[in-house]
Specification:
Number of helices: 4
Strand content: 15-25%
Largest sheet: 3 strands, mixed
Number of strands: 3
CATH architecture: 2-Layer Sandwich
CATH class: Alpha Beta
Number of domains: 1
Shape: globular
Helix content: 40-55%
Order of helices and strands: HEEHHEH
Radius of gyration: 15 Å
CATH topology: GMP Synthetase, Chain A, domain 3
Length: about 110
Amino acid sequence: MDSIRQNKVARLIQKDLSEMFRNECQAFAEGAMLSITTVRVSPDLSYAKIYVSIFPSDRTEIVMKSLENHNKNIRFMLGKKVGKQMRIVPELRFFVDDSLDYINKIDELLK
């Protein structure tokens, strides 16, 4: 169970990262559309697991490699945005959220 503070920090990170990927970090997406679906923050607020949905899904590996290569730049840009609200910017870990692909697969099997 996450605390209220964890939930607030997670929502803040999700909102700011979504804006960053939409406006400033389009080069990191390698031509794909990214959306931040979920952010989970550790109890000490030092780590953040970021679940990313990627469209089209065939570019998933390329985009994830790009995000890992530019992780420090993304964290730095996030730090500039949330620096007034947070003392420490959490370390970012990106994971693929493939729930939409799973839903499509189930729909095709049920038809």
